Amino acid sequence: MELREIAPGAYACLQEDRGWGWSNSGFVSAGGGLVIDTLMDLGHTRKMLDLYAGVIPDKPRRLVNTHHNVDHCWGNQLLADAEIIGHRECAARMAGDLSPEAIQAMISAPDLSPGARWFADDLADFDFSGITLTPPTTLLDGDTELDLGGVSARILYVGPAHTAGDVIVHLPEQNVVYVGDVVFHRCTPIGWEGTFAGWIAALDRIVGLAPETIVPGHGPLCDVEGVRELRAYFEYVYAESRRYYDQELPALEAARKIDLGPYAAWTQPERLIFNVERAYREFRGGAWDENVEVMRLLEDAWTLGQHYRGGRA
Q1: pTM of the predicted structure, to 2 decimals
Q2: Cys-Cys with 166: which of 3, 159, 238, 304 at CB 3.0–4.6 Å?
Q3: What percent of the chain has pLDDT over 90?
Q4: Domain ranges of the chain
C-alpha cells in the first residue's frame, strides 16, 4: 500500500492489482479531510487511514463511495462518524452483494468448484470478520459540488456504467479525478449494471474533463490515454462479441476466439467472459440491470483462464 501526493492536497492510496479486491482509494486534505472509497476489509482500511493521518491527524469529516461494490465500501464503519456520501443507487444496492460472512465461509470451505476456489483464493489475504455494512446517508441523484474550505470537489454521476450508482470526484483546481471502477487501468474491467454505451459515455466525460491525473479503482495512476485505452478495449470486445453472437456461438466459445492482443497482458484477462456476457445480454435485448449469474461466470472465467494458460479446458 502506497500513499502518493498527486497534486497539492490531493493523494492516492494505491494497491498493486493482484486480482479480485485490490482497489485504490483517494484523499483530499482540505476541509477537514475527504476520503474517496474505503477498502475491502477493516484491516486494510485501518492501514489506509493511518496513512491519511500522516497528512492530517484529525479523523476525516467526509467519505464518498464511488459505487457499492464491496472492495470500495466494506471499511466504511471506520468512518461512521463522518458524512458518508453516495448515489442513491449505491446505498440501495450495498446490501445486495455477497455478505462478509458468505465470503469468509467460501474462503475456508474445503470443497469448492474450480471457479469458486479461484475467486476465494484471491480473497484469502483479507479478513472479513467484524464488518458492519455502513451505507451512505447523504444521497445523491445527480451531480453536486462540495466546498472543502475553499477547495472545490465536484461529485459527478456517470452511471449506470460499471454499476448503477457510479460517481466520480473531480478536483478542477488540482486537475485530478478519482474515478472508482469506471476506470480499470492495465487490469481487465468487469461490469455489473449498465451498458457498453453507458460506460463509454462515462469514459468520454472523464476525457472531457482533461485531467492531468486519474486515480482508477484498480491499477496504477493514469492520464486520459489510459481512459482512451479502456474505451478501445470496450469497443473491440463489443464488436467481436457481436460477430460471434451473430454466428450463434455461446459466450464462452466467443471469448475463447477473441484475440486479446495487447489486452492479454492486463491482470486476469479471463474476466473477458463477463464483458462478452454483458454484450450478449444487450444483443438479446436484456435489461441493463438484469441479474448477473456470478457463480456461473466464475466457472467460465476459470475455464477461459485454463485455455489461456494452455490447459485448453
Answers
A1: 0.96
A2: 159
A3: 96
A4: 2-308
